[in-house]
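Homework help board

Subject: predicted structure for assignment chain

Our instructor gave us this sequence and asked us to write out the predicted structure in token form, then describe one feature. I got the tokens but I'm not sure how to describe them. Can anyone check?
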Amino acid sequence: MVAVASHVCIVTETYPPEINGVASTLAQLASGMRARGHTLSLVRPRQPAADVPGRRPEPRTLLVTGMRLPGYKGLRVGLPAGATLRAVWSRNRPDAVYVATEGPLGWSAVRAGAALGIPVYSGFHTNFDRYVQHYGAGWLRRPIAAYLRRFHNATAGTLVSTPRLRDELEAAGLKRLGVLGRGVDSGRFDPARRSATLRAAWGASDGDLVALYVGRLAPEKNVELAVAAYRAMQQARGALRFVVVGDGPLGPALARAHPDLVFRGFRTGDELAVHYASADVFLFPSETETFGNVTLEAMASGLAVVAYDYAAARVHVDNGVTGALVQPGDAGGFVEAAVALIRTPEWLPAMRRRARAAMEAVDWSRVVERFEQLLLGDARREEDDRAEHCALGGSGAVPHRRDGAGGAEARDPVLHAARSRADAGAAARALPVGEDASLLGRSVLPG
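My token output:
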């Protein structure tokens, strides 16, 4: 438990019971911060399916107006809420704000934090600039990338999921980047949940192999390549089933084109964990992940993973040991890697055991501790230094640490939370025209 309890506010446009990697990550961070003794408040749009009369959201949740996100059933974009945030945060001031999504609600939070001198951090959870090329709008990639750069550089720092993503974003002009990995609940996602009954319902006997895909059925997830890999695996070994867990705009067409596949729709919690554990190989050909929590869930469940060599797979999959890694964009290589596992089935039991073993040390508690350090570390140390200075009878300002300090702090400038106060005016000048534009010294358009 930390010595100084703080108040952290998370601002997001997605949160459970919505089903996606960002929502599940934020829920883990929120519960973990509470477990460490902090106050955790939440700002999110109302969810029509969940926020119904008589059902209360979790404590300290501020619900704001949102609108449906086209192409993403159930997800909503939060509308500007700067006046509300300033009023709420003036009454109950957070020590730090974490903005997880970059929509209008996120802009309001960054702007409100700048006006009140509250450190605001952002998270780069979704490659929106890469998504658009899968929807026939590749011409939007550069404007969206510019927008994201402007948004994140207006905050005290941006948290990213892997060192490789940090380096890529740094090269693209984003500043003050820190790495916050992901964890996995290895108690829930466990090979012990394997179910012969469920496998029988899929049409798989004890000797059959089951390939699994878990994720949204959308163009940016490259699901068709998973199906192509399965067809090639099927030719190499007839006793095989392919189970698809998830839903999305491609779902109906895929089901019509491939009636022999087992489509299970969205699954959550223990039910999802049983689906993972009852399969053997995890096919994940997405090329637009910022991380890919499903990779860790599959490995913790004892599945050999076939994935592109980036994001979570690059960090956690040991090629030839716990799965197979393929160079991003090499569709033929992805298919070949999947077929290779089928042609050498004697490798699979050891791969699956090693995948599980690798995940037993990847715990959410360590991720939450890192999150706490990145958002609150310097702010807490300044308070402790000031208290110590006063106790020693000193006066005047507490000396700042010299630049070039060693260790994680030197590599992660995002740790320096106090910087946001000094940069508040610069952050405000960097924000785009919109709601609460009167707060800004001048008008600036994004781009």
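Reply (TA_rk): Your tokens look well-formed. For the description, you could write something like this. The chain is about 40% helix and 15% strand. That's the kind of observation they're looking for.
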